[in-house]
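Z., the sequence and structure:
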Amino acid sequence: MRRYEKPYNGNRYLLNKSTGEIHDLDNELAQCQISKMNPDNVINCMSYEDAWLRGKMINGNPNGCHYCNPANDNG
């Protein structure tokens, strides 16, 4: 479910900059626990590639969420 309130901006992908986890908000599940995420760790991205590049620069190990982005989950 896309989110439009702060700190979200309606983009499809969300990078948790503290963990490097990339969430697909169009496929979000309760297990993703997006609502519990520290807003300071939220980076919204228009594409998976953008989220991956930002994650690579920030923590060096971006990864797709096991629940909402399993095609990009590397374990």
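The chain has a mean pLDDT of 95. The CA atoms of residues 66 and 73 lie 5 Å apart.

Let me know what you think.
H.
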